Amino acid sequence: MKQLDQETDFMLYSPEERLYQEKQLESFIQNTQENGILLGAIVQNQIVGVISVQTSNLTKIKHTGYLVIGVQKEFQKKGIASKLFEEIFAWARNESIHRLELTVITANFPAIQLYEKLGFYKEGLKKDAIYMKGRYYDEFYMAKLLEKR
């Protein structure tokens, strides 16, 4: 994850902010296992991409999952993100997740193009949602509704 943070401005964390201690990392993974899923793409014993979905136990929103994805620059445009999404879509249907949602900086054109290709659509705009490098950036809310098979 740290390498992703260093390679792109489009991840939420700055490299110096992701300072997980072993216990914090264990806690994060445990929480994700209980309320979602965390998958990694591994090439030559190296994690080159991750995708996670967080869900809720609250009855009114337990059908919704919030998604975060990142793939290292060197491994982008090789189908890794699409494969990670395929796995997430299958998991979500199995878990009765009907709605997947994410946010994306409006300047991240390759990601937006991929999300739209995969069936996500823009639902709204968060003005000045991210502050980095001395300026504000907007984010799109995007979602995909999953049909049961």
UniProtKB/TrEMBL annotation:
Assigned keywords, A-Z: Transferase
UniProt cross-references to InterPro entries, sorted A to Z: Acyl_CoA_acyltransferase (IPR016181), GNAT_dom (IPR000182)
Coiled coil feature spans: none
GO molecular function: acyltransferase activity, transferring groups other than amino-acyl groups
One protein family per Pfam: Acetyltransf_1
UniProt keyword annotation of Transferase present: yes
Highest taxon of source: Bacteria
N-acetyltransferase domain segment(s): 1-147
PANTHER family: GNAT-FAMILY ACETYLTRANSFERASE, SPERMIDINE N(1)-ACETYLTRANSFERASE
Protein name: N-acetyltransferase GCN5
